[in-house]
Every structure is written in C-alpha cells, then in structure tokens.
Amino acid sequence: MTATATIAINASSDITLLSDAPVTISGCELTVSGTLTLGGNGGALTLDGVGRLRPVIIVYGTLNLYDGVTITGGDSRLPNSGGGVWNQGAFNMYGGLISGNEAREGGGGGVYNAEACTFNMHGGSISGNEEPLLGGGGVHNRGMFNMYGGRISGNETANHGGGVYNRPTGTFNMSGGEISGNRASGLTTQGMLSQGVFHMSGGRIYGNEEAVGAVGVSFGANMSTLSGNAVIEDAVKLVSDTSAITVGEGFTSSIRIIPFAYAPGQQVLAPTGAPYGPEIL
After folding, report:
1. 250: phi then psi, degrees, rounded to nearest 5
2. The pTM is what?
3. What share of the chain is helix, strand, coil (3-state, %, to 5)?
C-alpha cells in the first residue's frame, strides 16, 4: 500500500504504528509533539519524504523507532535541520534504517540532534546519507548522543564528520556499535569529528576517511576519553593545541595519534607504565 500524508502527533497523544504488510507513505512529513512508536511488526513501513524539501520527521516530543521501518527521501532545505530526523526532543532508535536522506542547509543528513536534546541509539542503521555544507553526513550532534549499538556507515559530507559531527555543545558517549566507511570529501575534513566531549568505552571505529585518505577521526578542543573495549582502527588527528585524549586503565587497543602541529606529543594522557597505548606519529 502507498499513501501520501502530512501527519501531526500532538502533545497529548501516545501513538504506536505497526505494519504487518508492506506500507509506503510517500511525501511523508511527520511532526511529533507527543510520543510516536514506529515498528514493522513482521511487515515493512517506509516513510519517504520525496518532494517535501523538509525533514521526514520533526520531533518535539518522543520518537521510538524499531526494526522494519525505513526513513528515506528526506531533502531538507531548512537551516540546521536533519534530512531524515530532526530531533528537538527525545529520539530512541532500537532498530530500523535511516538512509538516502540529505540536509542541504547545514545539519545532519540522517539525524540532527539539537542542543539540550537526547538521541539514544541502541540498534539499527544510519547509512547512505549526505550533508554538503557544515558536516555530519550521518549524525550532527549538538546535544546528548548515546550510542549503545547499531551502525553508522557509508555516509558522506563535504565538510566535517562524514559519519558523526559532534559540535562544541555536544556530548557523545559511545559504548557499543560501530562507525565505519564514512567519508568527508574536503581536504581538511574527517570521517568523524568531535569538537565537544567524547567518551568511548566500547564499540569500534574503522574504515573512515577524508579526501586524502590519511585521517578517519579528529578530536578538537574538548576532552576525549578512551577506555574499556573501545577500538579505533583509524588514524586519530588532534586539531587544536588544547586537544586532549585521556587513555583509561582498561583501554587495551593501540591507536595512532597525529598530534597538533604546534605541540606534538603533549595532548595524550596515558596511565604511567602502561604496556599499551598510543603511538605518536
């Protein structure tokens, strides 16, 4: 079944949409002020924003996303928004696919998480999205982004952070999942860039690249910590003279650090006598 709809979920509503057969809503634009739960229920629900020139879903309340749902076709022309999901409330992603979306005026190709808002990613995939202006092909974060699982892969931007762009006001906690195969096509950009606070205690970051292919991950002025079973296989670049990485006692993976040009080797804080740790390039 195919339908076309502009739907508003008001602040007093708590609605669950489960599809037990293939359903496509074409030209979809959802505005959520209450609580909306989307799931496949054995079928497939596709929300396609084709032709709207706006995000597919704008969240002011709470959005819960489960397997069987695809969010695609978003082509937002709104400044600082998201092509797939523009979150100004709470977004919980347990499954599903956000793919084939674009934010042309700055924001996140897949997801834009606004300041003082929360995006929890437990599962699902954010892939094949684009952002050609500011950065954040997959996720552009200004608020709280907690990644427990799932995959962010194959996204692209012309600027910073093909997979994830964590802005100075943002906090990004990664304890699971993977960020891989994302690309930033500019000459001084990265597959992932964190200018805010970044804590990584699990999960895997690998196969991301900038146009020259040298750097997959960059850290800016705020503190980043690595601990536990976290794995970063990409080269890590420090892009500020105040960049700092703290390597925790439980961190056993080796990483390659490209220091900031004017203070080489000064930004990596590792436990004294640790038998592992960063290799300073």
Report:
1. -85, -5
2. 0.90
3. 0, 50, 50
